[in-house]
Amino acid sequence: MKRHAGKQGHRLPRDLSDEMVERLWHSITSIRDRAWFALLLRAGLRVGEAVGLKLEDVLSPASESQPARLRVCGKGRKERLVLLTADAYAVLQAWLLMRPVVSSTYVFLNERDGGPLSANGIEYCLRGYGKQAGVSATPHQLRHTYARQLTEAGMPITSLGKLLGHSQVSTTQIYTAGADPQLAQAYQQAMQRLASAPLPLQEAPSSLPPAAPLLPFQERPDASVDWEAWGLELPPAIREATLAFVKRRQSLWKPGKRGKRAKVILGEFHRFWSRQMKLRPIQHPTELTLQDFHNFQTLRSTEETVAHTVDYTISLVIELLRQLADQGMSVNHTIFRFKPRSRPESLPRHLQEDEAQRLDQFMLERLVSSDEQVRLENACSFVLAHTGLRASECLELCVQDLDLPGKRLFVRDGKGRKDRVVYLSDTACQALQQYMSTASRHAHALLFTFPDGRPVSYMWLYQHLLAIGQAIQIPSLTAHRLRHTLATRLLNAGMEITRIQKILGHEHVNTTMIYARIHDQTVETEYRQAMKKIERQQMPLSNVPLLAEHWLMKSNIDPQIKTLDNSV
């Protein structure tokens, strides 16, 4: 029997921001602990490598012209040389001068009996310092931070992999996934070009609308599924197979969304099975045929249902049947030849450039407000408009995911269980800084909350964007339209489509092309620039350029060409 593992997500390295590292450093008072902290942060050592370091492994001291060299025994008993800067070596040297004289040759000693310090000991100490500094940190996060800082400083990934002791470059890529200096630079350059573009001639609103009113607080309804009451009217075999399939899929979803998604999928199954029983009653899912799918498709089309909604429902049933086939049940294999109907090309959803600039102007004018509610609205608006986050990703951000000094946000467990980094414009950083100054927040708390501490809801965010759109005459302003708009604006500002793909978190660049639409003016500009380069490198086609409308006139044709033409 085949067993299919769930789709694995792509995780970002759990590095610490530079501000967190600074707070941790100031909380450490022990000279010994400062020394191992420096080795983890400035040499990228694993915690086991740090505690295994011996005095004879310090091969050469640091000088102004060269870093110190340490011999490290890493994973798989592989030895390698690591480098240590002069300032980090000075921290290590301060501990070595104070280190008690004992028989043990290990660099780091415990305070109990003078024996070697253990990995658990470092983890315990770091956890304590983290509590003092308000930072949740592990030794391995310092190693990730080391990799991120060197990558941002421009070190090639092959050299970094050698320092980290990786035998495969792909392993080093995992450590550096959150650091892409070229991508960050390309984003900032594109956003600066957009910010320097002339504002539209329309007049800005004469008066700013008041902050969107707080919606009455309601407890979130229980999203749990009543498994026992679902589909009691269906044949037992169909009901049991469907529930088992949904329960199996449920383990792959985010805990906070399992109940809601299970209800949605069970609803799709119920619609299919109910109509199937009217068209051709069956007792077991394996009795389905390809014709049943076509009949369902035809029936739903008469109900004016969107084509891709029908195809999504059928795809769920096909997935259920594939799972039953993997379990050894006899399934009609013609059903796997089902092809969804072709979908028409979607219309552009992005804002026109004058609308996007009008929105920027409106949000910029609101930055002067000191009202906490307005600052929350500004922060949400700028994050959505300048990062391309999905609404759900925006609402699930935690305080620890914000790195203001680095001008970036970490998106954890996004669509497809993928982590990614998005970058912040200067104005987005300003809006977030104003919002964060209103109250102190715990690192693991949600980033966006109302002044009274309640989490921001999707409905509030939806209504807030609609209200902004109405104030500046942009109908149906949604988070998804802002996502399309950012992709289109970045593309037309000169950013490469593959880099936009990374920011939006798309697996395939074709998906990004649906979001980003190239403007005709951009095509013309790029054509002119390219042709100028080509013409500089090629011999001229003529000494005196002719106007295009004169190219085919007989009077302008060279006599030799006329003769050639007559001979032909």
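Second entry:
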Amino acid sequence: MAEKFGDENVEKEMAKRRELVEDFAKPGGVGEKLQQRLKDLDASSPNNWLNDTLWTPLAYHTWRAPLLINSNWWLLFKHDPIMPDYEQLIAQDEPNPMGAGAKEVRSEVGDLGGKNKKNEWYEENCVDVGARGVTEVQVRRAAWLTGRFLEFRRRLIKEEILPDSSRSGPFDMYQYTRLFGITRVPKPGCDTFAPVDPSARHITVMIDDTVYAVDVLDDRGEPIGLPEIEARLWAAVKDAEGQGRGDSVGVLSVDDGDKWTENYQRLVSLDPRNEATIKSIESSIFGLSLDTYTIPPAPPSLNTDPYTRPVVDAHVRNASSGINGGNRWFDKALTVMVETNGRAGMMGEHSPCDALIPSIVVDYALGVDVDVSAFETGAKGASAVGGWKRCDFVLDEALRKEIGEAEGRAREIVMDSDAQQLWWDRYGAEWIKKSGKQSPDAFIQMALQLAWYKTRHGLTATYETASTRMFLHGRTDVIRTLSEPSRAFVYAMVDPKRSDAERFNLLTQATTHHNALTRASSFGKGFDRHLMALKYLGSAGKGEAIKHPLFDDDMWGLSQEWKLSTSGLSAGGRFLGTGFGTIWPDGLGTNYLAGPYLIKFGLESKNSGPVPTSQFKIALADSLAEMRRVCEAAQSTDQGASAAARL
């Protein structure tokens, strides 16, 4: 508020908001009436009022922005020893061996050359390998990953997977049922999910934009053997080699919800074969994209900061978007993509479940490296008699025109996206807990606040995901990182007159407050989802419209502008990174993996925005280094004072 109105007017503006809140909450007032509507909704909800009726449509299915980067999340898999350049990749990805006692590297934040040109370079320099790009290592790793995902699914159906839990108790497992066989379907005004087909036996395989249905379960619903999966994938590859590049119908799913709905209906009504192909895609267990290229690392001239990992950033590009949205169906809940060098990742549609759940499945899948002894030799030359089919689309000139225009819009989204990774290897969660004496997640959140201030010269409403899976069908609420304690900490860090002892005390206050917010939101005491529901239930069409100026207040609107959107995932030992995009032209999205000795940040902002991702990355690294110095200096002073007192 101070950034908007100035410190001298804060109290005056706060008084206005107190009056609004008091009027909203008075007995018999608007708040009480809306709360009664919410109680009535809860009484009629089988599980909980939020996730049974409100959350999916309000947060996702009525939102019409393109899914590409704006909504879909991505995850980078670790490399596998069967990859031909495995040793080289491992060497490039190895964290810097500098330990917690090493000298920090600090970089000034300066002009980094304006718009990032790497996306154009990626587009122009994809490396095709072999006939039409598909390779033996690629197909073998794809078959192995398919088998591992199917094994997890089998164990899930048989309830052999233990419930997730914490010290507070077990978590609801419903989201695990929203992984396999789930597809979003565009509809006018509000999307929906395709009906789950329990009899489905296939996955959707996309090769150079040609769609295949490949059966991976037998008649009893059990996974078929790895040699047969590999043979069927090769049969599809050989068929694709004779087809030429397919019409990129999948790129239509990149478009905004209204345009995609219109073209979806055109496809279905044009020819029955289109409806059959779409139904095959929607009912499939998951998607598998065999990309006919490997995106290479960008040259040094395009890497503008000292923390760049070119190989990983190229990996990010393919996992987040592919080549301008090609060879993907963005409505699938899960899509595994494998490049020609065997590099693999996953993209997911966000509405069925949160990214944490598929990341647990991926962690299981990556728990065992490819075992070549599980395959038969000569699979590439084998002929799979059955178990696969090509799924064609019938197009007219109008739809081909729509595809061309959608490709152009997809390219604009991809070219504007500046997605990178920061691997912070000077310390990790272990140092933060044992030496920094702080909660790792709260500490990282304060570093993000400080980096935002350094690059924007102000603060913004900040979203962090709180899991509410302690409740039946629970998903998320909000942890509001921006608070009075976090603001005080940031201001102290940029004020040269403040001592390190003061800064450390303010950091501790900020992280303690953040931990309390996390607990409250996770235990159902967050207020963002609650207020969202009250506002919605007061809207016309839900009984008599009930309005209140609280929901029209400009500060209410600003409080919902999550310019900094954040989420922590896991330690991520088997992941090279993760991420999601910001929906704000001047915003930043970050998903981070806080390992014991390495923190991996997935960062995404817009090339057209005011601050390059590289600049934020440098500011974040600088902030992490400063915060460590403050912790060590303050505790050294405390220890010295304690020693002197004992003398």
